Amino acid sequence: MILFKKVxxxxxxxxxxxxxxxxxxFVPTMGALHAGHISLIEMSKKENTVTVxxxxxNPTQFNDPKDFEKYPHTIEKDIYLLEHADxxxxxHPSAHEIYPAGLIxxxxxxxxxxxxxxxxxxxxxxxxxxxMVVDRLLEIVKPxxxxxxxxxxxxxxVIAKLIELIGKKDLIKIVICPxxxxxxxxxxxxxxxxxxxxxxxxxVAIYKSLCLxxxxxxxxxxxxxxxQTRSMLEEAGFKIDYIEIANAANLTLLNExxxxxxxxxxxxxxMNEVRLIDNMLLN
Length: 283
Ligand code: AMP
Description:
The chain has eleven helices and nine strands. About 40% of the residues lie in helices and about 20% in strands. It has helices spanning about 5-20, 35-45, 65-70, 75-85, 95-100, 120, 125-140, 155-165, 195-200, 205-215, 220-235, and strands at about 1-5, 25-30, 50-55, 90, 145-150, 175, 240-245, 265-270, 275-280.
C-alpha cells in the first residue's frame, strides 16, 4: 500500500494509472476503521484494478464541535488493517490539502427534502459538509466506482444526489454495501469505541427493535410499532432523536404501510454522549 498525504503526489500516481485505463475504486472514510469499512475495501478490490481509501475527519460535517473533538483517531491500526486488506492507496490528507481556501463553503448543494428530514433535521448543516468534502474528494481521486455503506442510508442518497448535481452521474457508479454488524447485531461504527462496557451492552436494543419491527410490521400499525420501539429504546437508556419509517427510494416519511413500495425503518438515538444510527429494510 502506498500512503499519500499530498494531492499533487496522489495525482501523479493516479495519472500514470489512468493512462493504463484504470479508474480507481474509491472508499472514503473518517478512519477508526473496522470490519465494516474493510468490507467496502474488499468489494472495491473485487471490481477495480486500483482501490483508493481516504481517511479524513472532515470538520465541516460535524454540527457538534464536541463530536468532532472526540472522534476517534487510530491511524496506526487503520494502516495495519488496510495493509492487511491489500488496499492499494491510502490518501490521508491534512485539512489544508482538502480545503486550501479554508473551511468556507464553495457552494450550496440543493438536496431538496433530503436536507430537512431525519439526519437533516437533527444535524443541521451536516449534509452540506458531507457534500463539500465528497465533492472535493471526487475531484481529487476521480473514481469510476464509489463504495458506500448502507449503515448511513440517507448519506448514500445524499451522495447520489450530489453526483447528479455535479454532473458526474455517467462517470461514477455508486455501490452500496450491506451493514456489517457485531455478533450481537450492533451495527459496526467508529463511534462504538466511545461506549463504556455497560453502554455497549445496552445499545444492542437498536438492532433488536429494528428486527422486531421487520418481523411484525404486517400485523401492527406504524404508530404502534414506532411507540413500541420508543419504549424499548428508552428502557435501554437511549435518548431518541427519531424513529421513522420511510419510502426506501426517496425517504418520504410514512404514516401508513404501503406494500407496493420498498420501506425502510431508520433510528437515531443517543446513549449518553454517543449518538448512534441504524436502519433496516422492512420488505
Ligand atoms: P465513516 O468513516 O464512518 O464515515 O464511514 C465510511 C464509510 O463506511 C461510509 O460509506 C459508511 O457508510 C461505511 N460504513 C460505516 N460503518 C459501516 C458498517 N457497519 N458496515 C458497512 N459499511 C459501513
